Amino acid sequence: MNIHEYQAKDILKKYGVRIQEGIVADTPEKAVEAAHQLQEQTGTEWFVVKAQIHAGGRGKGGGVKLAKSFDEVKEKAGAILGMQLVTPQTGPEGKLVRKVLISQDVYYPGASEPKEYYLSITLDRNTSQDVIIASTEGGMDIEEVAAKTPDKIVKEWIDPAVGLQGFQARKVAFAFGLSGNAFKEMVKFVTALYTAYRETDASLFEINPVLKTSDDKILAVDAKMNLDDNALYRHKDFAELRDITEEDPLEVEAGESGLNYVKLDGNVGCMVNGAGLAMATMDVIKLSGGEPANFLDVGGGANAKTVEAGFRIILKDPNVKAILINIFGGIVRCDRVANGVVEAYKQIGDIPVPIIVRLQGTNAEEGAKIIEESGLKVKSAILLKDAAQKVKEVLA
Fold first, then answer.
1. Which of 16, 55, 149, 270 has a 20 to 30 A CA-CA distance from 257?
2. Is 166 annotated as a binding residue?
3. Cofactors per UniProt (predicted)?
4. In the chain, which ranges are E strands?
5. Are 21-105 and 248-395 the same fold in CATH?
6. What number does CATH give the domain 248-395?
């Protein structure tokens, strides 16, 4: 589950991670109030107005502005709120900005120049270990750094049996070329950040940039945080942080029906029981000359209700030209699924696109017979290659 920058910073602060202080607002007037309050709390004279959407690269799209007065705060918050912000991560359609974060200015003059770094923590599935990824090239896309200057990326793997060790936090600080108080502050920062990552059951923390201020403080200027959906039962308060306005409406609807759905850009809708089979089904669609329009896992207990919900969600995508239902009858019998397909078809009424149903496993032949004798515009298949061929035929 993705959350906003201001929410991620609130969590980090609770774990002792120093952050760029800020207050969220949803109107220009509230933005000015936030700026006044922030000035009282921090003494800042200038302010940063930051769009709050679930996407990076906001500055490149005009979603981050410096304001040097309260009037400028109002003006720039008014310009950002309500805009359709397009960034490299939103796609051409962009995202509507509903909130802005009014933050303190942390790039103040002092004994030394401020310096930006990149720092993230995530799970390396190849090693089954958490990994800290660090770079001196803060403020840039890490993908760009990896492509152009891979030598500037440092990785530190963490053994889950012992957790982050002190020498590892110091290695990160050394990699940044820090010394003196800034070195000590970075060690504290890395240690607190990893504690927050582990105790919140996060799947990703990305701080870009981490800032060394001119007086050698280390703080998070930005914060991207992904929470593991499967661990939310341990963090009831985190569920309240979900912002469904930032999510695809079809994915939200699917979640409410207990379906795992991800919208894609293709022309063949697919409905499958099991994530692995769903991935294989998308490969089959590609091999047949089509493009998958979605990932949809109805789970092991597919029935008329889940099939109907799946149909309705898939059909809301205007790009869908055909639907492939691929069910393996292990937990559930294929004849039950076939009856569910027929019942769901009748409930929905006339479905304007061809449907191919591939059933394999327990009572597969009985299921195919039910489909064929239903009188509906549904083609049945048992072998995967037959299903691929029929998808190819209906797309021709």
1. 55
2. no
3. Mg(2+)
4. 22-25, 47-51, 64-67, 84-85, 95-96, 100-104, 115-124, 129-135, 153-158, 202-212, 218-220, 224-227, 260-263, 268-272, 294-297, 322-329, 355-361, 378-381
5. no
6. 3.40.50.261
CATH 3.30.470.20 for the 1-19+107-247 domain, yes or no: yes
Q: Where are the domains of the chain?
A: 1-19+107-247, 21-105, 248-395
Would the annotation count 102 as a binding residue? no
Q: How far apart are CA 30 and CA 78, in angstroms?
A: 10
Distance of alpha carbon 231 from its chain centroid, rounded?
15
Measured distance CA(42)–CA(390) in Å, rounded: 66
The fourth-level CATH superfamily of domain 21-105 is: ATP-grasp fold, A domain (3.30.1490.20)
Q: Whose CA is closest to 353, among 266, 263, 256?
A: 266
Q: What gap in Å lies between CA 282 and CA 293, rounded to an integer? A: 9
Catalytic-labelled residue, pool 118, 194, 197, 261: 118
Which residue out of 5, 156, 206, 308 is catalytically annotated? Answer: 206
Q: Is 59 known to sit in a ligand binding site?
A: yes
Per-residue pLDDT tens for 231-279? 989 998 998 898 888 887 888 888 887 788 998 989 999 988 888 888 9
303 is in an annotated binding site: no
Question: What global pTM score does this model have?
Answer: 0.80
The answer to whether 310 is annotated as binding is: no
**pLDDT tens string 135-163:** 999 887 888 888 888 889 999 999 988 99
Question: How buried is 198 (Cβ within 10 angstroms: 0-12 exposed, 13-18 middle, 19+ buried)?
Answer: middle
Clarify whether 206 is annotated catalytic: yes
Q: Is 319 annotated as a binding residue?
A: no
Measured CA to CA in angstroms, residue 251 lies from 49, 227, 256, 259, 341 at distances of 30, 17, 9, 9, 21
- How far apart, in whole angstroms, are the C-alpha atoms of residue 339 and residue 327? 13
Sign of CA dihedral 251, 256, 261, 265: negative
Please tell me the total number of residues recorded for the chain in this structure: 396
